[in-house]
Write a structure and sequence with these properties.
single chain, alpha/beta, TIM Barrel, 7-stranded mixed sheet, globular
Length: 213
């Protein structure tokens, strides 16, 4: 898997994002997990289970929308949108992790899996949370909770510099093995998969090896 840090582009302005594979730096910063496919589907296996990252890796724009509706009907509908991602905006509304976990589970679409022949969802699910990226320590637990729920990306608000972004990236990575091809930056994410393996449709071993920035 290519190192996403090689793709870091110069930040042009606060509202025109500079993109490198796995992270979008803008007024808000999206840090998305890159997950390579393993052997769980032998046919038509995608390079990345995250459809938004697959678009970025191919040099294409990713298109999505936002919502604050955690209802079953809304989550089912959003999972079948003709888009690459949608995200829950909890920056300006209640922080509802229980509702988020409910919706993540509701977007698991068996019909879509059978049709595609692999575990890649049609639409990736992200979320935006209240803490700012510049408030470094306030984001640590949010990152852990969000990824263990099964999200494929997080939108970080108010990231001002490389130091802040790299700290957030570290909390999205598990501590690397000594033989890791990309040991930097060292990961700080605690290992307790929670709902992630169910949502992503892979084993704990596969998730630990592949769910990395």
């Amino acid at each position: 898997m290519p190192n996403p840090l090689r793709y870091l582009a110069r930040r042009q302005s606060d509202y025109r994002p500079a993109v490198f594979q796995g992270v979008v730096v803008a007024a808000t910063v999206l840090a998305a997990l890159l997950l390579s496919s393993g052997t769980f589907f032998a046919q038509q296996a995608p390079l990345h289970l995250n459809p938004a990252i697959e678009k970025l890796a191919a040099g294409q724009p990713m298109i999505g929308t936002q919502t604050d509706d955690f209802s079953l009907q809304n989550c089912h509908s959003l999972a079948r949108l003709d888009m690459d991602y949608f995200y829950f905006d909890m920056e300006h509304g209640p922080l509802n992790l229980e509702g988020l976990a409910y919706c993540v589970a509701a977007t698991v679409d068996k019909a879509a899996v059978l049709k595609k022949g692999n575990a890649q969802p049609k639409v990736a699910l992200f979320a935006r949370f209240p803490p700012y990226g510049r408030d470094l320590e306030s984001n640590d637990w949010i990152v852990k909770q969000a990824l263990d729920i099964g999200l494929m990306g997080i939108i970080f608000n108010g990231v001002d510099n490389k130091e802040q972004m790299m700290r957030l990236v570290r909390y999205m990575r598990y501590p690397q093995q000594k033989t890791s091809q990309f040991p930097q930056p060292p990961g700080l994410r605690g290992f307790a998969l929670g709902n992630a393996t169910f949502v992503w449709g892979i084993s704990a071993v596969e998730y630990e090896q592949r769910a990395d920035l």
